[in-house]
Amino acid sequence: MELDIQCEEMSPSRWAELLTTMKSCKTIRLDDCNLSSSNCEDLSSIINTNPTLTELKLNNNELGDAGVEYLCKGLLTPGCRLQKLWLQNCNLTSASCETLRSVLSAQPSLTELHVGDNRLGTAGVKVLCQGMMNPGCKLQKLQLEYCELTADIVEALNAALQSKPTLKELSLSNNTLGDTAVKQLCQGLVEASCNLELLHLENCGITSASCTEISAVLRHKSSLMDLSVGDNKIGDSGLALLCQGLMHPNCKIQKLWLWDCDLTSASCKDLSRLISTKETLTEISLIDNNLRDSGMEMLCQALKDPKSKLQELWVRECGLTTACCKAVSSALSTNKHLKVLHIGENKLGDAGVELLCEGLMHPNCNIQSLWLGNCDLTAGCCATLATAMATKQCLTELDLSYNPLEDEGIRKICEALRKPSCNVQQLILYDILWSSEVDDELRALEESKPEVKIIS
Fold this sequence. Notes:
By secondary structure, the protein is α/β, with parallel strands linked by helices. It has a domain at 264-455: Leucine-rich repeat, LRR (right-handed beta-alpha superhelix). Helices cover 41% and strands 12% of the residues. The protein is built from 16 helices and 17 strands. The chain has helices spanning 12-22, 37-49, 64-75, 95-106, 121-132, 154-163, 178-191, 211-220, 235-246, 268-277, 292-303, 325-334, 349-360, 382-391, 406-418, 436-448, and strands at residues 2-6, 27-31, 55-57, 84-86, 112-114, 141-143, 169-171, 198-200, 226-228, 255-257, 283-285, 312-314, 340-342, 369-371, 397-399, 426-428, 453-455. Helix 7 (178-191) packs parallel to helix 8 and helix 15 (406-418) packs parallel to helix 16. InterPro entries: Leu-rich_rpt, LRR_dom_sf, LRR_RI_cap, NLRP_innate_immun_reg. One of its GO terms (cellular component) is nucleus. Pfam families: LRR_6 (PF13516), LRR_RI_capping (PF18779). Forms high-affinity heterodimers with RNASE1, ANG and RNASE2. It is found in: Cytoplasm; Nucleus.
């Protein structure tokens, strides 16, 4: 049984009712429920007495250090079998880390710990690392985003990595580590026996100076499938260094996030080579990089290569215009693998989307999710979009937010949604003005087709 509740204020009577349910739950998720340390005392008892409970998710609650102390009492009991613990943004400090260290040391069932968005600090996480080094710790996933870590944490992290071959996922995003620390971390990862599958280092103060070491991790850790270095100013020179590791035969990367990395069209030659030859690569995010039409045309040429297996491409806010849409359309009509295309916040215009729809309606195209928010679209392109919606049965998600479609455009989209051949299940229409009459039509449409969700 699962208990999954979000954003609900807990009255005493409601809490008492839920406690009875929790006694037989395998999963308990109570994010944003205004819980406090007093609720944790009850939860500790549930952890102790419910041996089937394997996942506890309590994100965005004011539990505090006192609440975690209660939870850990339950976690340290012999009957506890908890595997996944989520405590993101729970107002924890370094004081919680000593009790969590005890759990890591003594509870071999715990394989996931998510404690991001808490002011644990370097001193606190050093204590957690001591717990990880205990032979009884079998941790596989550790999430430490926004924990106010500094470069001083790397020595303790590397020591933990050396002793923890079970660790598969490490997220350190949004901590001020800097190049020197990231270099040391990567050197430790190369030497460590762990088979890391995910490494997230977004917004860590990385420049091109770190990219040789990150590239070495890609070469030496064939287990690494998910790398995110978004929101770091690595630039075209850093990307070229990363590609040396990405293109190595040992590298089996599947997901690569490079959003807001100061990349330009100059990087697209390397990226195109990667997309066209690295058959393991299925998802790449290049959001908020100045690729421009010339860069996008190179990427589209790579997508047409039979060896490309890319399924998701994120090129939102990349300085694209109508001029690249013929190339995008050609790629859509050729690549059978691409399922998700995020191309919003680019000045494609009606003419550009008309071209995209030509590729979208080709039999080879298997797009399921298309994001066109803030693309300077008007009602002028909606008839073509409506045709694509009604004929392309694989298309299940469409985002048209922040475009001045007005009543005329929305009505054309609604016509398509009413057709039995249309399989769009989620239509996103944020910040579009329409009349009360059209609003009534949208609500009636949702009632007549309950499988359709219109988000506005």
